Records
---
Amino acid sequence: MTLNEFFNMGGYAFYVWTSYGIALAVLLINVILPLRQRKKLLGDINRAAKRARRNTT
Amino acid sequence: MFNNFFHKMASPKYFYGIAGSLIPWLAAGCALLFVAGLYYGLVKAPPDYQQGDSYRIMFIHVPAAWMSMFIYVVMAGAGAIGLIWHIKLAEVMAISSATIGAWFTFLALITGSIWGKPMWGTWWVWDARLTSELILLFLYLGVIALYNAIDDKRTAARAVAILALVGVINIPIIHYSVEWWNTLHQGPTVTKLDKPSIHLSMLIPLLLMAFAFKLYYAVVVLMRARCEVLERERHTVWVKELAETK
């Protein structure tokens, strides 16, 4: 099998690669979202704790 | 000893730590399975005698559809455990599963649609299998919307668990839809009591991809659950200390 044949997928290139592309996007999104959420949460919690300490002293 | 283990695991703080150290190993296993599955699925497996190369969409469509149902059952099960024994962590696992389940359902529907166009000549038909899978997506979205609509997270978790449990009825309907109704969608070739009616060269990549998806779910559900734990425990000392060291 040549590389050209591989990418051509027997004429179904559009359908096959669109499917795999969407799958890749979905898998990436679901890793990126919780990573970003965790970073944001830790930042928020840290800021809130600092603010609370400043207000008490 | 086992009691002690479960007691510890149910504590959000220990869960956060253990989940954090498990994630890299699960992710490594997942990556290996994906590489193997994609190699055997896209390169080694021969074209189908009827569908040509278009059938390779199966290697993501079928695992995604399996996961959409599997995650729903996990979500409802965890919801029930939270409902009965008031275990916070079960509530966390249930709601963390919902979003991922919704994404897998979306993936199963859209890849099915893209596969349907060249094979059936249409992107969509209102037949039993497709419609019941679409209802599954709405059930997931309902669970997420309901959870976000209620401010108190513990009340929200209870409401969501009940909704999820009622919706479980849809799971056998999806599975048997291709047998109970006349449908364009083909019947099961793997998940049946008989020998799988699929050649080994196609079954192996299918199973590799299915296990890859399963490990992927394990990774992302733990990532989401850790966020949910942080959010719920944000006023505890250990979370504040953790946030400061980051």
Note: The mean pLDDT of chain B is 92.
---
Amino acid sequence: MLAILWKDLLIELRTKETFVSLLLLGLLILVVLTFAFDPTSPLRAAAAPGALWVALIFAGTLAMNRSLLREREHDCLDGLLLAPLDRGTIFLAKTAANFLFMVAAQVVLLPLFVLFFNLPMVATIATQTPALLLGLLGFAAIGTLFAAVSLRTRAREVMLPLLMLPLAAPLFIAGIQASTQLLAGQPFAAVAHWLRLMGAFDVVFLVVGWLAFEYVVEE
Amino acid sequence: MNPTDRLLLPATLAAMLGALYLIFVAVPSDAYQGPVQRIFYVHMAMWLNTFTAFAIVGVASLLYLWRREARWDHFGRAAAELGLLFCSLGLATGSIWAKPIWGTWWTWDPRLTLTLVLWMIYAAYLLLRTLATEPQQGATLAAILGVSGVVDLYLINRAVYWWRGIHPAVIVTREGSSGLNDPLMRVTLIVCMLAFFLLFCWLMRLRLRAARLQDSVDTLRGALAPAAP
């Protein structure tokens, strides 16, 4: 598992293509959404987490499509499948790689987001990080699983969001709610149920993906 | 035609006519809601079918992944199609009822949100079947989605309830709690649910038979294809 993760990270370090495209796309969506929600209004704190999550969802979806498409392009997936590995392990490694890419992009996006919406820097980053990490983990798990599914279909770029977003609805509701309330100055205890829900989602889809990945990649 | 089919069709027809008679003629109007409330009997029947269908999709998907038998795939597919049909009808009848009673076609009531998300999952399920590059693989992939959908159901449910639960503006009116006081109302509801459930069974059998026929056509075609010059 670590070898696959290391391979993905190494490719990424050499090319930086996923990271840069994720970052720019996230940034772009954030800017567009800033136009949509007046960033100077006193209500901005209510709209801001929504903007952050939407930027994350769209950029992340495209990045995950890339991550498995890359394996497909040079038939690398076949090579991976030939390796004497449990298929679930491949899933976990790919999920970990996608998770790390999104976290890396998020590390840069979050301060920019704070600047754009003119929010308190340290407090926002400190409160948003746990919710974002939980959200990204679940998103990486379900995204990796269904990116592999959509690889097997025509119109695969469209299929991924269609398959994944409805299933990920609880994750987004919980994430956006937790973010909004934390940003409004609520203590962590007030959003504990949302964080637990996201944690449960992460566990469920890591397990489902781990078990189901074998069926997805078989020829 | 086997005996079950021979019985099922007339039984459905009879129950359907009975339900129509009860809804439009026999049952008294609701004291507060007036005649609009009559749509509730049909609406409730839609939900019974929708959730039965989606339960079948979940179980059939799991069995298909486990046993790899085509019939479980047929079951899943047929149930998903019917589930989506009755889910759409349920949303439509609900909306028609909600407009005069709640004053709006749609609210983000947890039940409505849950249903909408369900609808989208199963629409994606059917789309996945259509767009899969190979039918065999499509069946497997759809089964994975079917299982994920059922696993996810509890989480979606929690999320939508908490989501609107925090805000005070939840519409808590439930048709059931407003009380079907007249015994005839309860009879109507039961007959109506029975009628639509029979319809569901009948459609399900038709759809399964069509799937089996399709399979044999495909097999025959496969057997004949190499013989062609």
Note: The mean pLDDT of chain A is 83.
---
Amino acid sequence: MSVRPASTEFPVELHEAGRVRSLSGLYLATMRMAVQTQIQYRAANYFYMFGMIAEPVIYLVVWTTIADQQGGSVQGLTAGYFAAYYIVWTLVRNMNVVFGAPYWEHRIREGELNRDLLRPVLPLHYDIAYFAGWKFVVILFWIPLAVGLSLVFEPTLDPRAFEILVFAVAIWGAYLLRTMLQESLGMLCFWTTRGAAIFDLYMTTELLLSGRLVPLPLMPDWVQDIAQFLPFQYAFFFPIESLVGDLSNAELLRGLAAQLLWILIGLAIFRLAWRHAIKRYSAVGG
Amino acid sequence: MSDATVHVAQLSKSFDVPEREAGLRASAKSLIRRRTRKVKAVDEISFDIAPGEVVGFLGPNGAGKTTTLKMLSGLLYPTGGDATVLDHVPSKRERDFLRRITLVMGNRNQLQWDLPALDSFELNRAIYRIPREDFLAMRDELIDLLEVGDLVRKPVRQLSLGERMKVEIVGSLLHRPQVLFLDEPTIGLDVTMQKRIRSFVAEYNERYGATVLLTSHYMADVEALCERVIVIHHGSILFDGRLAELASTFTAHKTIEVALENGRADLSAYGEITQRDGDVVTLRVPKAETARVTARLLAEHEVLDLNVEDPPIEDVIELVFAQERPQS
């Protein structure tokens, strides 16, 4: 290997690109690395995907059967709607898989946070970039599964161009929103080593109020009222409904605005918690 | 602003450690009242390290070495006192500070497990915002210095511990840090690999004038690299000075190794015999007696060879660790 000696002047002033440019460089490099790593795990990714699809397929079979028994629809939602809802669900669910709160415990206990803290960049950036890169692999793997599910369940899906555009933005909004919520929740790991119960409570609440279990219009009115004031539906129901449902342009834009608002609230909570959490960090695990 | 690269004044770190007795009863009690104990990991230590200096940081397990290194690299918030590194307060974790230091911990994997190290290096380039030209030059130089040209193209999971450590070091130095905190960088490595890493650290220090604070349980590392050592025990500094002075400060004895024409002569009257290897006898004598004993040996026996030395550094360190109170 030919060697070109690096400058021996010291101290060396390394040039630094602008903040935005260098952050975008970090995001691109991390995403590239995530794609490379996840392609290495392609078999595991497919098995994971198959496992994940079992959940919506069960929901879909149940609701389709109920719809058929009730003359073709449940509260106005047809079997074709349910098929479309849960097939799009599979993509949205894959998109909103993020660096989960419980992994903060692992990160702290195994000493991985030491590595992350030595880097001159907030670990949040790395997490967002890594999982965003993974999404490109996920989408690639999802396409044949979605085609297969569509052939079996015959969804009713006829979106407008604007709806497709909003959906494309909303799935990334859902990703960022859920990232902020999970990362903020993960900060609990700096205060307690028994966050699992809280994480479970969060997941159950999310399951019920997000549209993950059933489309929100099928929930009782009071549940829908509560859900309106919480962020969960903007990570599940809204992105799905933006493509599958019949929302007006104003409703679509309001949904995106709500996503943005919750992302910013989540970011603010994370930053506040991070500032305090890092002072408590005891750098165990090496 | 301080002239020292590393300035530490009255630096302390305490941890609240939960504790309870074993058993179901104690477990039930801890539900109601959780008992904690404050452990002082580092207790008001002070020292300065000049630019370009290589300092050995010695102490037994749990002495406070790693905690100090973690405070100096911004991982831990101190409980008290002050520290500056390159005129930055480490706990503020400013980007400019983090871009100018590195902390290498033995047995820690900072590289992507399933990818060749070259890919992880690329990520470091982006993280540290190193211009491509500088990055390539530094990367190739480090690869050459550590002789890892063949290794950086293999997935990291396929490397041995020693190979991985060398590649880890390349990754940690790509941004050309001015201060290196090395925590047991040779732990678990074979002798050849230890030597290679030792000579690399020396070369890096010489080439870039980098400041190095090194902890190691291998005295060979310290003897090869550090003129100055700081000895820490129970969170307090016991000794800060030249390695050569460590023995004279802490031991009241010297070692005389003597080879006699008559190898079977009884030398027990001259001092404590610590070893006999053929005709060569090793004596332990009080420091003040050394000159007199040496003169007597030369006068009373047919001496083939004679060496007067401080005890091996491992023995001195063991002696230091056995002490409880700081000494000046």
Note: The mean pLDDT of chain B is 87.
